[in-house]
Amino acid sequence: MAQPQLLQISTEQLQQLVEAVRLAATSTVAATAATGTKSKGSFATASTIFSGVRDHEVVEEFITNATAFKEVEGISDEDAVKSASLLFSGLASTWWQGIRKEAKTWDDVIRLLREHFSPAKPAFQLYLDIFNEKQDSEKPIDTFICEKRALLAQLPDGRHNEETELDFVYGLLNIKYRKHISRNEMKTFKELLEKCRIIEYNAAEDELTKSSQISDDEHGRRTKRCTHCHYRGHTSDECRKRVKDTK
Asked: Of 119, 157, 201, 207, which is least packed with CB atoms within 10 Å of its CB?
């Protein structure tokens, strides 16, 4: 049986071959960019799954994550709608099977999702939610303000400017912030957060200092020893035996 012959090429021929392959690849990429053609994609590898929870925050988080995945992966509207079922499970999957024909674009998917699982609350209900809870001593300032601003964002557009919203939130702050920060000291939520964080930091540092002092005092009480009787728990000035011996 004849042995296969090895193909031998010179270094110059190899370089020419590599250059030809590189130019061909470059031309393909350039042609794709010029025509605006996007590679097909889907939500097959997306880790974001919506199960059908009727909760505004959960729905908005899902929409944000799914939209970001769509943009990063370069998924077209057509492919996004076709593969949208991969994003749903449970009740959401059942819902999608019933309304999918109504969705022609990705914006339609988002609109239908919000209408069914996150219908807009009436303004009066939002105001009740906003003013129903004041900040307690345990809730961090960042969390509290984020929650209130999320509710304010659900109000009809243009209902309040930032100054009015600041008035709402400032009145709900824990007294430990309001007694150190005047309402007139800030004009934006960013300024309010910065000032409140300083107060939180100082309060935490003060607590740490107090704890350290208490620990040092307790340690001192445990280790002090009388130089007269050599028993622990008191000093020579407090020693009853020394007083008795000196009489």
From this structure: 157
